[in-house]
């Protein structure tokens, strides 16, 4: 203990004497506000005590795990309390390299080791951290939300149901209005946001208002959603921070997952113009990024999970076909097209054009393509909701308008 104290005194003396003398005085002109918890948080957050800025939202529910995310207004110590019938409650934290995550506002807590096909209830809990020093932490008020509930997948599902939005373009009412009209019974196992949920991303409140809050309040505390990158998400001064608000498997915006008889493959089509376009100021590299994805896709279509699936569905914002002749479309066609044909995809779901349309399989793309409509305001297309249901024998997909009429439909059987 004495040696520990001497070492701490030594470190303290080094910090307050030696290092201070070497650094310019300007380095210590730190505004007092920076010492406050949450002071370095994005603009537009509420003043006052710690509050929840969103209800929890689920990401990537599986047979034995799920990620639960939410956002606080102040830096906190956060955890999930999980309840299973007949079992004592369990606490889950986010951990990395031996450290339990703390002093943060954006929470992404993995719940692992769950039982297949099991219903759970949960609460999310946050204790504000008011002072964080190397050897002393002061905690503030504890707040909680819940209970909420979810059920893990069994791994033996014979069917999967899903709902797909595209091109919301900051019209969050489309989420509640279309799901309320066209899926009032919540007959979907997950929801997909298939690109361009935003016009651009300048701050955190834009992400919360236009996507997270309406999703969490309506379904996402119990039913997960999947975020697909469009060509508008990469725009804006906060675009590079946006990835913190979603859980991407492997940290990539391209990935694959199986549910029921379907293998879903998510691709990031990137920006629509050339990397050298002046709009990007030399800060994008989408050609290399798409080529990297293509190398991954080449492995994916040879995987056991892909080959054994009854159906294979691609989710990509900009369709490599029927999306004009801008660079992004053509490059997607060049790097993804041959692999998608080789892999014998059964269906592709896209957006981007703001014009709903179906395109039957042909010699260019050996599978049908369904492109959803636009956000439905200011002349920017008619909004649609795509609903899909797949069993072992049939994949049935409908593109629906506000009044429930069918704008496009496919009934596909196993090849």
UniProtKB/TrEMBL annotation:
Domain Calcineurin-like phosphoesterase residues, every copy: 161-356
Protein name: Calcineurin-like phosphoesterase family protein
Classification via PANTHER family: ACID PHOSPHATASE TYPE 7, PURPLE ACID PHOSPHATASE
Positions of transmembrane segments: none
Taxonomic source organism: Anseongella ginsenosidimutans
Gene3D superfamilies, alphabetized: 3.60.21.10
A GO molecular function held by the record: hydrolase activity
Pfam (any one): Metallophos
Record key words, sorted: Signal
Family annotation (PROSITE patterns): TAT
Signal sequence coordinates: 1-29
Keyword hit for Signal: yes
């Amino acid at each position: 203990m004495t040696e520990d104290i001497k070492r701490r005194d030594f470190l303290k003396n080094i910090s307050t004497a030696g290092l201070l003398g070497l650094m310019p005085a300007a380095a210590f002109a730190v505004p007092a506000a920076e010492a406050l918890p949450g002071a370095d948080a994005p603009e537009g957050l509420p003043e006052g005590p710690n509050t929840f800025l969103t209800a929890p939202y689920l990401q990537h529910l599986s047979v034995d795990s799920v990620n639960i995310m939410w956002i606080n207004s102040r830096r906190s110590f956060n955890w999930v309390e999980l309840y299973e019938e007949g079992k004592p409650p369990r606490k889950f934290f986010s951990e990395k390299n031996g450290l339990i995550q703390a002093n943060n506002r954006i929470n992404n807590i993995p719940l692992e080791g769950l039982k297949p096909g099991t219903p759970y209830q949960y609460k999310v809990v946050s204790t504000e951290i008011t002072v964080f020093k190397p050897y002393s932490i002061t905690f503030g008020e504890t707040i909680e939300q819940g209970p909420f509930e979810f059920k893990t997948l069994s791994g033996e599902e014979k069917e999967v149901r899903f709902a797909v939005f595209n091109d919301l373009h900051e019209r969050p009412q489309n989420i509640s209005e279309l799901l309320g009209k066209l899926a009032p019974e919540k007959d979907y196992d997950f929801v997909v946001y298939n690109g361009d949920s935003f016009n651009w991303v300048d701050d955190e409140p834009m992400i919360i208002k236009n996507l997270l809050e309406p999703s969490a309040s309506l379904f996402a505390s119990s039913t997960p959603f999947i975020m697909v990158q469009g060509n508008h998400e990469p725009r804006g001064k906060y675009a590079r921070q946006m990835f913190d608000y979603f859980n991407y498997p492997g940290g990539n915006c391209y990935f694959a997952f199986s549910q029921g008889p379907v293998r879903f493959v998510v691709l990031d089509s990137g920006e629509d113009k050339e990397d050298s376009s002046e709009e990007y100021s030399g800060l994008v590299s989408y050609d290399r990024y798409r080529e990297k994805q293509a190398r991954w896709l080449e492995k994916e279509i040879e995987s056991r999970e892909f080959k054994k699936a009854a159906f294979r569905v691609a989710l990509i914002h900009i369709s490599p076909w029927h999306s004009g002749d801008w660079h992004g479309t053509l490059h997607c066609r060049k790097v993804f097209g041959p692999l998608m044909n080789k892999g014998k995809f059964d269906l592709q779901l896209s957006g981007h054009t703001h014009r709903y349309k179906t395109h039957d399989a042909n010699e260019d793309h050996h599978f049908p393509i369904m492109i959803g409509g636009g956000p439905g305001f200011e002349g920017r297309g008619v909004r649609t909701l795509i609903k899909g249901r797949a069993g072992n024998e049939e994949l049935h997909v409908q593109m629906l308008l506000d009044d429930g009429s069918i704008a496009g439909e496919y009934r596909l059987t196993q090849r």
